[in-house]
Amino acid sequence: LYDITLTLPGIAGIILSIGMAVDANVIIFTRIKEEIGFGKTVPSAIKTGFQKALSAIIDGNVTTLIAAIVLMVKGSGTVVGFAQTLTLGIVVSMITALFVTRFILNAFVEMGLDDEKYFGSIKSRKIIDFIGKRKIFIAVSAALIIAGFVAMGINKANTGDLLNYGIDFKGGTSTNVTFNEDMSLEDVSDYVVPVVEAVTGDADVQTQKVTNSNEVIIKTRTLSQEEREELHDALEAEFGVDKEKITEENISGAISNEMKTDALVAVAISLVLMLIYIWFRFKDIKFAASSVICLVHDVLVVLTFYAVIKWNVGSTFIACMLTLVGYSINATIVTFDRIRENLNILPKSTPRSEIANKSITETLSRSIYSSLTTFIMVLVLYIFGVSTIKEFALPIMVGIVFGTYSSICLASSLWFILGGGDNPKTAKKA
Asked: Crossing angle of helices 257-282/315-345, nearest 10°?
C-alpha cells in the first residue's frame, strides 16, 4: 500500500514488530493471571488485566515509535526501510493486542470457557533481592564494556580498524562469472557461495544475477591476486566455467559516510526524545535516565561482541543496532511501570529497595517469557538462514540476552542509586 522497499533492515523491522506484539500479549496475560490469583472471576480478571496492562503497553510502544519516526525523518537509505516497517508494525501490533486479543478472550468466556484452569493464576511470589546485588551487576556490565574497548584497541593495532568492517563499509572485489547454465538465486546461495566462502575465509559474500543471462556478480572483501586466481580455479573445477570470461573490479563501500552520519544523528535524537517522553510520563527523570543508560549499555555490549569475536560489520550491523534501540527499552518500561504502580499503592514508609525488588519479581516471568519467544524466533532465523541472515541473527540474540539482563538487573538498580538509595534525603545529591 505504501510502496515500502523491503531491505534486510526492513525485515529486521518486521521481526522487531513481531517481538513487540508477543510482548504486549504476554504483559496482558500475566496481568490477567495475577488478577485470577487475587481471587477475581475470569471475566473480571480480563477486564482489570487489560486496564492495568494498558499504560505499560502504550509507553513501551510509544518510545519505540518515537525512535522509528525520527529514523524515518532523519535516516537515509536502508535505515528508512527499517523505520517504515517498524512504524507500521507498532501500530498494527497495538491494535491487535488491545482490541483483537480482548475480543478473542471475551469470546472464549461467552462460549463457556471461563474456568480459571484454562487461564492459569499467579499467587504471591517470594521476593528476590536484586537491589542487594546491584554492585555485582554494575561491575559485570562495566567489565564487559571495557573488554569491548580493549578489543577494539587491539583490533586497531593489528588491522588498522576498530571492527571487522565488511564490504558494505570498506568496499571490496566484484567478480563477474558466466556460468554454463542459468542458475537460480537459490542455487547460487546453496552451491556457489560456499565455494567462494571457502576461498575467502569470510561469510560476507553478496551475489546478484544479471537479467536475461547466465552471469552472476559476486561481491567479496578485497581479494589479492593469489586469491583471485584460487577463486577462478575453484569455480572452474566445481562448475566448469571458462576462466577467461571471469572479470573483476574493485568497488567502494555501499554504505556512505552520509548514511552512517544520518543513522548516528537519528539515534541520538531518538534517545533524547525517549528521555523526554519517559520523564513526562513517569514524572521522574530518574526513570528516564536509567532507561536510556540501559539502552546505551545494551548497544555497547553488542559492540563488545562484534569486537571480541571479530564478527563481520556489514549492512546488517546498522539493522542490528537499530533493532536493539527499538526493542531493548521495552522490558525496562514494563519494570518501571510496575515500580510506578507500587509506589502509589504501598505505604509511603516502604523502603525503595523493597519496592524495586517486589516490582522486578512481579514482572520477572513476563520479562523472561517475552524475551524467550523473541529469542526462539531469531534462533530459527540463525539456524535456517543464509550467511547474511546469520550475520544479523547472532548479534540480535546476544542483544536479547543482555537486554533482558539489563532490564531485570540494571535498570531498577540505577533508579535506586539515582534516587539516593533508601534514604530520601540523599536523593537530591544523587
From this structure: 10
C-beta of residue 323 within 8 angstroms of C-beta of residue 391: no
C-alpha distance from residue 15 to each of 6, 378, 405, 430 (Å): 13, 8, 21, 39
Listed residue (386, 358, 11) closest to 192, CA to CA: 386
Identity at 55, one-letter amino acid code: S
* Other residues' Cβ atoms within 10 Å of the Cβ of residue 59: 22
Tell me the C-alpha distance between 52 and 32, whole Å: 9
Strand partners, 215: 178
- Give the model confidence (pLDDT) of 121-152 as tens digits: 887 778 999 999 999 999 999 999 999 999 99
Q: What are phi and psi for residue 152, nearest 5 degrees?
A: -65, -35
Q: What percent of the chain has pLDDT over 90?
A: 32
Q: Residues 333, 63: contact at Cβ < 8 Å?
A: yes
The position carrying cell 567479496 is: 220
Cell numbers found for residue 341: 504502580
Contacting residues for 46 by C-beta, under 8 A, at least 6 apart: 32, 102, 105, 106, 109
C-alpha closest to that of 86 among 67, 99, 73, 58: 67
9 in Cβ contact with 82 (< 8 Å): yes
Backbone angles phi, psi at 367, to 5 degrees: -60, -45
- 3-state DSSP of 337-365: HHHHHHHHHCCCCCCHHHHHHHHHHHHHH
Neighbours of 39 (CB within 10 A): 10
Inter-CA distances, 177 with 212, 236, 269, 285, 333, Å: 14, 10, 44, 59, 52
Q: How far is CA 43 from CA 52, 119, 280, in A?
A: 15, 11, 33
pLDDT tens per residue across span 306-350: 999 988 887 678 778 877 877 788 888 889 999 999 998 888 888
C-alpha cell at 359: 516490582
pTM of this prediction?
A: 0.80
Q: Is 98 exposed, middle or buried (0-12, 13-18, 19+ CB in 10 A)?
A: middle
Nearest to 17 by CA among 60, 75, 55, 80: 60
Helices (H) then strands (E): counts for the chain: 15, 4
206 SS3 class:
strand
